[in-house]
Amino acid sequence: MNRWQREINLLLALLVPALLMGYFTEHLSLILLAITTTLLLIQTLHIDRLEKWLSRGAFGDKREHKGIWGDIYHHIWKIRKIDKKRKKKLSRMIDRFRTSTDALPDAAVVLGSYAEIEWTNTAARELLGLKKTDKGQRIPNLVRAPLFIQYLKSNNYQQKISIPSPVNENIILQISIVPYGAGLRLLLAQDITHLKKIERMRTDFVTNVSHELRTPLTVVKGYLETLQEMDDIPEVYFKTFQKMSTQTERMQLLIDDLLLLARLETKAKKADCVRVPDLLKQICRESDLLEKDERRIELVIGSDSCLQGDEEELRSAFTNLVVNALKYSPTDKPVKVGWFKSEDNGVYFEVQDFGEGISSAEIPRVTERFYRVEVKRNHKINGTGLGLAIVKHVLVRHDAKLDIESQLGKGSRFRCMFPAKRIC
Ligand code: ADP
């Protein structure tokens, strides 16, 4: 039967006799009032039953109710059933997610918009010392390393940071934050103690070997100089000694660069206020003096900003770039050096040459250690392949970026971009 049919039948069953009775007794309005009241009472009864059924949890399909009310019961029961199924599925998924995240060796913490803890996995409790009861607490109140708090506040999570674990300071954690959703952040912490140890061993090894090589090399160099100064030395030996001298010098440069790199990896950062304009004038004067004939450095100081950092490190980075520009461009072409304000209120150091340039494929590789571009030159250019690696390290220590633009045969432009917070 049509779901409305029963209701209409009921209405007709009441209305028709009522109309007839009303017609014959002349009390039509009274009879209609009585019928409307009866209908209202019936509906109120249904609503009351429905409310009771809902308050008991809407269990069981109430198909025994006929007509539209039966349908209403049935639909509510069906929606509840689907909802129950969905909830079961979701809870199974959450259980699976919990089991897998708990098996993760890395700590994971979901942070709300006020950096309050919303969820943690088991590793977060072990590595960061967070407890289940810490839910709702702000994480900076629990993980108090200043670098971490600064990182959290910065809202710039492109780089990762390393901090000692709040549970055991011998454990080094690498922290990264991934923002997602509306103001939510996922904090990941990885135990990198072992990696740090290997890195330290590598640096120590390079430093020790370099130190050990320094002394014998100085002795060899000394003897070679003495031998070259002797008067009665045959021409053939003289040339050999000269070649040996060049190679020992190259080795000495290599050792110096390796030691400098090792120092950059381990030394504590300095934060002096470096007068970059003066430093650049000095570097350019000294580098220009290395040129045989014409002076070719054109220095433009477009900003009088000073920089917070380590003067010796900056000197080394800037000198490397200026010397490279001189080395890799013809002697009749100028080398432009500049110090300017950047659009984002920071400052930048720029060196531009009009030399051989670097192909776009090699640009990402030139800052790798010992990487030297293979170019057919009519003369050999000396170098260790460590200069740009040193530049990159120094810049990282100064929160700066190296930007390289170059075109083969046209020249190169190296820019060291310092952020505004470094200006002093
Ligand atoms: P190197 O001691 O060989 O100069 P660097 O690390 O300073 O080592 O540079 C790496 C390589 O990058 C160089 O060997 C050179 O091929 C290339 N390079 C660096 N600067 C320039 C430049 N201004 N013009 C062209 N090539 C350059």
Characterize the structure shown:
With 424 residues, the protein is α+β, with helices and mostly antiparallel strands. It is built from 10 helices and 12 strands. The strands form 3 sheets. A 5-stranded antiparallel beta sheet has the order 2-1-5-4-3, with helices on both faces. It has a 5-stranded mixed beta sheet with strand order 7-9-10-12-11, with helices on one face. A two-stranded antiparallel ribbon has the order 6-8. Helix 1 runs antiparallel to helix 2 and helix 6 packs antiparallel against helix 7. The structure holds adenosine-5'-diphosphate (ADP). The site of adenosine-5'-diphosphate has 21 residues, from helix 9 and helix 10.
Specify the CATH architecture of the largest domain.
Answer: 2-Layer Sandwich
**Overall average residue pLDDT:** 90
Q: Helical stretch count?
A: 10
| Quaternary class | single chain
Biggest sheet strand order reads 2-1-5-4-3
- Uncertain runs are none
Shape: elongated
The biggest beta sheet, please?
A: 5 strands, antiparallel
End-to-end Cα distance: 87 Å
Strand residues, percent: 15-25%
Into which percent range does the helicity of residues fall?
40-55%
Tag the structure with descriptive keywords.
elongated, single chain, binds adenosine-5'-diphosphate, 17% strand, 5-stranded mixed beta sheet, 12 strands, Beta-Lactamase, alpha+beta, 5-stranded antiparallel beta sheet, 424 residues, 4 domains, Helix Hairpins
